[in-house]
Amino acid sequence: MPPLVSVIIPVHNCERYLGEAIDSILAQTYRPLEVIVVDDGSTDATAQVAQAFGPPVRLMQQSRQGTAAARNHGVAAARGELVAFLDADDVWTVDKLTLQMEALEAHPELEAVFGLVENFTSPDLDEEARQRLVVPPDLMAGLAAGAMLIRRTAFEHVGDFDSQWQVVEFVDWCARAMEKGIRYEVLPELVMRRRLHADNKTTRQRSEQIEYVRMARAALVRRRQAK
To answer: What domains, with CATH codes, occur in the chain?
Structure first.
């Protein structure tokens, strides 16, 4: 049997898009997989959307603690040898996991595989909302949580996401991964489509962009202490 991939979806009040995210996972050409939806204190119908799928989708619920804590909760419950993440408003391409598993099998020294990311404007937005969004036209190297597949042993070597961060939890995790010397590759193929809409986390919390500065300072302190 090929190794099990555990896919964790952290979600808060995203009933509108969650079903499409789960569909894109279940449409993967790779098997076996499990999907763990971690409901981070939603007050809408998010839980009902997840429950309606049934196996291999599992729902876990927690009080509102943030994306980092939700991801950590999902990883702790995961059964797979490999771990992947997808935000509830984004979608995968159908061969995302297959491409990444092929890379890991061809290069056993690799610990994580990323791919390219495409941004798109959510089709449910009206014209006024569309005009307010800036959509990068080109594919981007996807050092993003949703574009990654990682061996569980490598994830545990880096450690959990730091729940003090509300916006930059994955940027901080990546910085720690690089410091640990995690071996990774970025595939030249598209693996994830990132939805742009009015409620994107980084759009809602622009006042918290100071986190980037704080996170960079924390990384600098770690590097100095490691010398």
So the answer is: 5-226 (3.90.550.10)
